[in-house]
Each structure stands twice: as C-alpha cells, then as structure tokens.
C-alpha cells in the first residue's frame, strides 16, 4: 500500500490485515506533513502528539478486532469545527487563540470510531471566500500549482487531501466551500443535504445554508465519512430527524436508464470553454453507461449570486455579532465599553468579513429590508420551485462545479464582485438545501483539474455517490507532484 494514493478502504484493509499499525500510519502522515505542509500551508495546526495518542488507542481496538470503519484512520478537520482542547481559529485574528471547551457533534462521532486527528485545516476567514487567501494566516496553495489558489473556503481541507497529507478531511459548505476547492484541487467533495449532518460546534457563518461534509479521494470515501458523521442531533434543532442510511449502499449499481438533467444556464458565456468541454464529455460517458441526458433550464440562475450574498450576508452579520471581545476571542482596548468592542472587531476581523457584515446589516436595516432581504427570500422560493420542476423529469442534475479552473494567487480574490460571481455554479444548491458532489472530470491545457457537480434530490446522497462512482471508476487521475 502506498499512502500517497491510498483510499480509506485501502487503509482499512492495511490496518485490519496488520500490514501497518495505526501509530506507524499516523507517523507516516506526520512525516509527509512536515515535508510538504510548509509549502502547501494546508494545515493551521498540526496535532502530532494527539495523533500519536489517538493512534495508540485505535491500535488497541484493532488488535481486539473491534475496529469501526474509521478506527485508526487519520483525518484533517476544517478549522471552523470545534475540537475540545485544540485551537479552532476560523483562520481569523479574532479566534487566533480560541480553544473550545467542547467537541462539535461530528467530532464526537469520529471519536466514537477512534479516528486519528492529524490537524486543523486552513480556510477563508470565517469561511467567507473562495480562495483561502482571506485567511489571516496559512494562506493555502494549490498542490497542482503553488502559484494558484486551492479554492475555498475549505481550501485547506481540499489541499491536504490533494497533496496526500491526509487521506480525507471534513470541510463545510455554505455556498460551495466543499465543492469548489475539491474541484480546484482535483479531489472529491460532498455537500450533504441541509440537516443531514449536525451543525453543533460548527462556527456559524450563515445558519440556513451551512453544512459540514467530506472531502476525499473518491465518492466512495466521501460516503464512508458521511456514514460516520450524519444523523439527527438534539443539539441542533435543524438537523433532520431522519434515520441514517448506508451511503455506500448503491455503489456498483448501474446508472442505466437514469435521467441526468443538463441546465443550459450553467454552460453560458461566463464558463470557460475547457470546463464546459470536460463536463459535456463526462455527460457523454454517462450516456455510454446507459443514462439519458435531459435538457433543462433554470431561468433564475442569473439572480442566484445576488440572492445568496444577501441571505448569507444577513445571517453572517447576525451570527458574527457575538464576537464582541468579551465572551471569547480577541480582546481589544479602549476607555469605554463601546471603544473596547469597536477595537476588538476592528482588529479581529479582516476586510472580507467586515464587508459581509456591512452588506448584511444594510440588507436587514429598515427601509432596505423589503427591497433586498425579502426579495432574496422570494428568489429562494423561486429557485426551489425550479429545482422541483427539473426533478419531475430527471434523477440528478449535472453542472460544472466552477466556471474556471484554479486561478493565480492575487488574480481574483482582490476583486470581491468578481469573486462572488465565480460562485454561480454552487450557491443554488445551498439555497435549495440540496445535496451535491463534485468529482474530477478532466484537466485543462495547463494541467489544472476541472470538476463537475452532480446535484441530487433532498436526502438522496446515496444516488449521488452511486452516479459519481460510476464515472470515477473509469476516470484516471493525474497526480500532482506531491503524490506522483
Ligand atoms: N465562496 C462563497 C462565499 O464566499 C461560499 C463560502 C462557503 O461556502 N463557506 O460566501
């Protein structure tokens, strides 16, 4: 087994078969992290001691033949997911020294399987961005070309998987933050249905859109990870009271007869020709496998980015009002209470976060509420309606994950509007609470990965995994230099 390319299944087999012990495996990853992370900067915190202790405990279970699917499996966790006793910074100055006194529910669930924590992965500050360059520290690079962005906001999670310094990771997705970095880094990312995974312990960005999900080397690995973290949670009232199925259940089933919708608006002028070409080529592969392509339309797509930034901004402004320098986070200075809060927030938040707070408060203020926020909510209903209409004639929807491949650092992330518009392919999925998976489907002339997204019906992640896997089985990955 080569850990550079190993899937979770390979690792499970090697651990259970005694080919490698959990501490040896953890040690190998830590060694690679020490070599590669200074260049890629995917991790904010590397938890070497914890990883070794976790691995020793896991090995006992493996020796007793009591291993669960993730026992002894090393993982990276996005740094907005609370880990008891381990810094959780949101890549922000505000939370630079924040050590949560509790675990997020997803972490409790991973611990119940005795996983191994490798470290906390970098991200855009408070998950706001699409490049991981709004991070206050650890501005992650793309493993396929370190002069380019890894995407975001879960850019750290995607990059560490892509560079082979974690076999899989958890990210979070509010408007595309699992799928777009997965696409930019040539790996697979699954954004579950809203409510599928508990958000308890996920530092909130936009509560009606946020969802935790896996980034891994394959759809199958994403399903294994989702199996571990999904489920209703009494700590999160929006978690779905739905029994958790086995998301690997449909693996290997044929896609023959399945209807795949192609909404034409996703293939417009703003999408690169090479991206369109690769996604349409994948559509043809599905046809060869017996699926039927269905043309369809989503006419409200042109308003989706505006609706998303109004809704997410409004919720962000409200969620981030808790950072006042008093309860936790950076403590500012000042002679009065007001001065202290002002100083804390001025120094604790970066430019992008401040921009969202301003936008959100503006949209919610009296006089503008009806003109902006209420309109955005109406658009949300329209987008849901259009998705429902498409699902009357199709099983899944196929789109590009992003209009372009990963761009050069400094090229786009300094122009907020340009960056917001680049979220066009992903935001409607969050607005409509749907699940979607991004899968590598090609490379452009410069060798940068291209991703396609398969969008499913609510709670139909098992079908997404099936459809993604059917393609992935015949797709050959071009590894980056860290994995070659
Ligand atoms: N790029 C989008 C934004 O900046 C999505 C972020 C996310 O999904 N967390 O808001």
What's the oligomerization state? Answer: single chain
User: What count of helical segments does DSSP give?
Assistant: 15
C-alpha end-to-end distance? 14 Å
Roughly how much helix do the residues carry, as a percent range? 25-40%
Biggest β-sheet: count, sense, barrel? 11 strands, mixed
Question: What structural class results from the helix and strand content?
Answer: alpha/beta
* CA-atom Rg in angstroms: 21 Å
According to DSSP, the number of beta strands is 11
Residue stretches low in confidence (pLDDT < 50, at least 5 long) are none
Q: List the strand order in the largest sheet.
A: 1-3-2-4-6-5-10-11-9-7-8
What are the distinct ligands in this entry?
A: glutamine
Strand content: 5-15%
Which series of helices and strands comes N to C?
HHEHEHEHEHEEHEHEHHHHEHHEEH
Overall mean pLDDT stands at: 97
Short key terms for the protein model shown above:
15 helices, globular, 484 residues, binds glutamine, single chain, 38% helix, eleven-stranded mixed sheet, alpha/beta
């Amino acid at each position: 087994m080569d850990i550079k390319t190993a899937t979770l299944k390979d690792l499970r087999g090697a651990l259970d078969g005694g080919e490698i012990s959990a501490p040896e495996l953890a040690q190998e990853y830590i060694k690679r992290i020490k070599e590669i992370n200074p260049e890629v900067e995917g991790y904010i915190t590397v938890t070497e001691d914890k990883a070794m202790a976790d691995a020793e405990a896991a090995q006992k279970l493996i020796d007793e033949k009591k291993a669960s699917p993730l026992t002894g499996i090393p993982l990276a966790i996005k740094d907005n997911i609370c880990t008891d006793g381990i810094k959780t910074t949101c890549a922000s100055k505000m939370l630079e020294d924040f050590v949560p006194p509790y675990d997020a529910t997803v972490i409790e669930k991973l611990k119940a399987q005795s996983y191994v924590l490798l470290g906390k992965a970098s991200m855009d500050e408070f998950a706001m961005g699409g490049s991981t360059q709004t991070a206050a520290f650890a501005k992650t690079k793309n493993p396929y070309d370190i002069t380019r962005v890894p995407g975001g906001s879960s850019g750290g999670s995607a990059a560490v998987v892509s560079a082979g310094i974690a076999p899989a990771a958890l990210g979070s997705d509010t408007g595309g933050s699992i799928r777009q970095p997965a696409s930019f880094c040539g790996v697979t990312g699954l954004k579950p249905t809203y409510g599928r995974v508990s958000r308890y312990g996920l530092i909130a960005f936009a509560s009606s859109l946020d969802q935790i999900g896996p980034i891994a080397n394959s759809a199958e690995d994403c399903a294994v990870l989702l199996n571990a973290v999904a489920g209703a949670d009494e700590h999160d009232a929006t978690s779905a009271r739905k029994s958790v199925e086995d998301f690997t259940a449909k693996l290997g089933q044929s896609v023959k007869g399945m209807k795949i919708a192609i909404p034409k608006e996703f293939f417009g002028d703003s999408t690169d020709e090479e991206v369109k070409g690769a996604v349409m080529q994948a559509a043809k592969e599905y046809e060869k496998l017996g699926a039927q392509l269905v043309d369809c339309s989503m006419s409200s797509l042109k308003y989706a980015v505006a609706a998303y930034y109004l809704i997410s901004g409004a919720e962000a402004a409200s969620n981030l009002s808790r950072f006042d320098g008093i309860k936790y986070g950076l403590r500012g200075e000042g002679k009065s209470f007001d001065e202290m809060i002002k100083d804390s927030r001025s120094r604790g938040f970066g430019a992008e976060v401040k921009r969202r707070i301003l936008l959100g408060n503006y949209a919610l203020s009296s006089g503008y509420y009806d003109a902006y926020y209420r309109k955005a909510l109406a658009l949300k209903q329209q987008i849901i309606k259009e998705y429902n209409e498409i699902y009357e004639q199709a099983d899944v929807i196929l789109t590009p994950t992003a209009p372009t491949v990963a761009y050069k650092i400094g090229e786009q992330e300094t122009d907020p509007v340009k960056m917001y518009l680049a979220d066009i392919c992903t935001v409607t999925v969050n607005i409509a609470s749907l699940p979607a998976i991004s899968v590598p489907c090609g490379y452009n002339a410069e060798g940068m990965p291209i991703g396609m997204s398969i969008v499913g019906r609510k709670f139909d992640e098992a079908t997404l995994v099936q459809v993604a896997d059917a393609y992935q089985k015949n797709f050959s990955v071009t590894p980056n230099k860290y994995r070659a």
